Predict the 3D structure of the following.
Amino acid sequence: MTRQCGEHLRGRTGCSLLFVNRTLSKVANLAVSCGGRALALDAFLAAPGRLDVIVTATSAREPLLGPAFFAALQGAAPLVIDLAVRATPTWTPLPPPVPSFRHRPFEGSG
């Protein structure tokens, strides 16, 4: 998911990519191929700077970005998108369908 997201955003005007990982060597090549920079997680958490959007895709059991991280950010709060897939998903059952609701297929916009 990280690679796909980086490739999609590569070269967009005004988009500066920063790839972060616990192990810098794991994201160094990806950062170069997507025209971005790489940074080790500990350095990023210590001084995150200004961010507009954070896209995460981690398998960590505990949150990596806590109150101290967000307090250290400069500027407005960023949009956070979490692409992680839990190893053991928990499912919430959907409510029963509403009898009067009719499904209409999506036909796109415009």
In short: The chain has four helices and four strands. The chain has one domain: 2-82.
